[in-house]
Amino acid sequence: MVVKSRPLSRTLLHDLLGGAEDPGPLDVRVESEKAEDGYVRRHVSYPISSGRASVFVCLPSGVSGAAPVIFCHHQHAGRFDLGKSEVCGISGDPDQAYAAELARRGFVTVAPDAIGFEDRNWADGQNITWFELSSRLVVGRSLLGDCLREISVALDYASALPEADASRIGFIGHSYGGRMAMWAPAWDRRITASVSNCGCIPYRESFTRDTGFQAEFVVPGFAATYDVEDVLAVADHCRYLIMATDDDRWSRGAEDIRRNLDAMGVDQVTVEVRHGRHDFPATARDSAYEFLARELTKS
């Protein structure tokens, strides 16, 4: 671990990520709505600093009372034509359809397109994230800061729905989404349970040509002093389940993360390493869903 000049705090984290623009009033427009097996999927949009967010929210059927909210972040996989549609099971890998599966289990799920993906891609599915990064860096902002701010806005929307219990908010993601699952609770304290699958690789393990640095996580100077353990420690209000596999480059460093957290006295993070590759099979998803249900139904 690197030597820290001062501990990472939520205020310092916000400062390091740069000021994010306020999107203004949440003027929600319902684009469409469709009944699915066990839930209703609604497509909504609302203003954000770079245009309009494009979001699916899945509302469980037959549930009495307000349900917990789960933010479902999509993967990367170099598929900039996919985002919210994959986690909702409309297209892409069926093993990524956790927003739909959680809605069938009685959760309100919210799944936006991240910047540069699906409806947020303005270049016919090409990689625009490095442009999105550089155009922010030159004015003292970061792509990560804006992505996290958009997560908070999505939670503003979802938690205000009559079907939602704003006091019980969780997060789940695979790969890119798994990385965001570590950062989002440090940014937004409403998130009290978070599952990261196959996305825990720390900065210190990323200086290799087969991994490198994803544009969204390029924060000037951050890795000179801090790493993902510091981010996890900031979110001391949140219970984490970090799921990794033993044959996945994006899971590298999982065991070190566990040891470092123990040495730091951070006890709200569980790290599990299973046999497998860069995947999210049904057995792992079931464990993730059980964790979220358990943590979000505690009194």
TrEMBL record:
InterPro entries: AB_hydrolase_fold (IPR029058), Dienelactn_hydro (IPR002925), FrsA_esterase (IPR050261). One of its GO terms (molecular function) is carboxylic ester hydrolase activity. Pfam families: DLH (PF01738). Residues 86-199 form the Dienelactone hydrolase domain. Keywords: Hydrolase. It comes from the Bacteria. PANTHER family: DIENELACTONE HYDROLASE DOMAIN-CONTAINING PROTEIN-RELATED, POLYKETIDE TRANSFERASE AF380. Belongs to the AB hydrolase superfamily. This is Dienelactone hydrolase domain-containing protein. It comes from Kribbella turkmenica.
